[in-house]
Amino acid sequence: MSTTAENVAQLADPSATTLLRFATAGSVDDGKSTLVGRLLHDSKSVLTDQLEAVEAASLKRGQEAPDLALLTDGLRAEREQGITIDVAYRYFATPRRRFILADTPGHVQYTRNMVTGASTADLAVVLVDARNGVIEQTRRHAAVAALLRVPHVVLAVNKMDLVAYEEKAFAAIAEEFTAYASELGVPEITAIPISALAGDNVVEPSANMDWYGGPTVLEHLETVPVSHDLTGCHARLPVQYVIRPQTAEHPDYRGYAGQIAAGTFRVGEPVTVLPSGRTSKVSGIDLLGESVDIAWTPQSVTLLLEDDIDISRGDLIVPSGDAPATTQDVEATVCHVADQPLTVGQRVLLKHTTRTVKAIVKEIPSRLTLDDLSQHPDPGQLVANDIGRVKVRTAEPLALDSYADSRRTGSFLLIDPADGTTLAAGMAGESFATHKAVTTVADEEGWDF
After folding, report:
1. How far is CA 181 from CA 154, 170, 222, in A?
2. Which of 61, 100, 271, 367 is most deeply packed, by most CB within 10 A?
3. What pTM was computed for the model?
4. What stretches of 353-432 adopt beta strand conformation (E)?
């Protein structure tokens, strides 16, 4: 059995807790910020001065009780309009687990913000108003979670107090959402009936829904199995920096520093450097100033190789027996996040791990309509919040994994070379786990390298 960094930490410190990253999503006024505020308040994760500020802001708006949504809606425009505009990150902990949560906006025009918040999430909480059921925006958020390969999805049916806590209302919504999300390939779906405003089933079990025997939201967040053990994945080390002291003490030292994106590296292991394809063996591993025989993700290390090879920032060190194919033709699903459109023939920069290369958008075969997962073929461009398939030709070979195999080394950014603006976030390979989205490929056009 392999020993993981997490296991080692827990053995060294019995009080160590695991970390869960999760994001909230839902339509406007479904109660996302209220849920997060209730979660923070009832789990005793709110500082006194924060609560006092919320109470003062609530009184100014004519509310007698503190509006817990204000704990996450930090922008002035958000508080004035009573909506969430930007992703709000909050950090809290219970005795059982540490949490990083991203409260994402509900408006359609902020889909790109949800993509940002959910891109690193282990779990997504999708809220639904019990009075409205599964609506277009609910399906959109389920589709985004599936595209981003979020492994766990919680359906929080909120405002149960406004439907008299009826089991029938909850069951119908849970059945419809579960069928839709399962069709998209979401591996695990948990439905929980709640009232964020009243606190039912958020932290404490509800006395109003004795027909429900499942966990509260916090209990599920504390106990959902989340594996951060990437040591069994394809080993990848994107080189960030070449260490060459050239001092009297280390005249011949040449190390390749970076954070291990996935997998495990061992001294004596044959490795290949991409994209050059040169091979060598690991002669040493330096970790925090000490020499070790083995290192794993997410440790930041320096690898030493037996042979002198031309290696620089942006190269990828991988085991020789598990090297990804290199390519200059990248086909991927992208979420367009910039206000300016992405067009066929556009010159861009593609940033993958620590490597940035010139590229040209060769095709935009389709734009995905998240409402019903239909494809709009050959749109010619993608605008803000659009999700679509693209084909990009790079000036230099890249070693991309499929996003389904590695969210870290299967993702990339498209950047405007003129001003450095991020244009789109990309996920290499198939769109959905079930191959639900079928694209129509257009004829090639544009520039050639």
Report:
1. 11, 16, 23
2. 271
3. 0.80
4. 355-369, 374-377, 381-382, 387-398, 411-415, 422-428
Roughly how many angstroms between the first and final C-alpha of the chain, as a whole number?
Answer: 47
Q: How many CB atoms lie within 10 A of CB 410?
A: 20
Torsion of CA 313, 390, 415, 27, to 10 degrees: -120
Task: Say which residue, 6 or 86, is predicted with more confidence.
Answer: 86
Q: How far is CA 188 from CA 117, 217, 219, 401, 407, in A?
A: 19, 15, 16, 24, 18
Provide the residue type at 209 as one letter. Answer: M
For 295, other C-beta atoms within 10 Å of its C-beta total 24
Question: How far apart are the C-alpha atoms of 68 and 36, rounded to whole Å?
Answer: 8
Encode pLDDT of 347-368 as tens digits. Answer: 999 999 999 999 999 999 999 8
Please, are residues 201 and 216 in contact by the beta-carbon 8 Å criterion? yes
Most confident of 30-39, 116-125, 228-237, 241-250: 116-125
Question: What's the Rg (C-alpha) of the chain?
Answer: 24
The Cα angle at residue 164 between residues 221 and 106, in degrees rounded to 5: 50
Residue pair 84/32 in contact by the 8 Å Cβ criterion: yes
What is the distance between the alpha carbons of residues 169 and 162, in angstroms, rounded to a whole number? Answer: 11
**What is the residue-wise DSSP string for 67-95?**
-GGGGT--SHHHHHHTS--S-EEEEEE-S
Cα gap 181→193, rounded to integer Å:
18
DSSP state of 447: -
- Determine which helix (DSSP H) or strand (DSSP E) holds 329, and give its type and residue range: strand 327-336
306-319 average pLDDT score: 94
Cα–Cα distance measured from residue 263 to residue 322, given in angstroms and rounded to the nearest whole number: 11
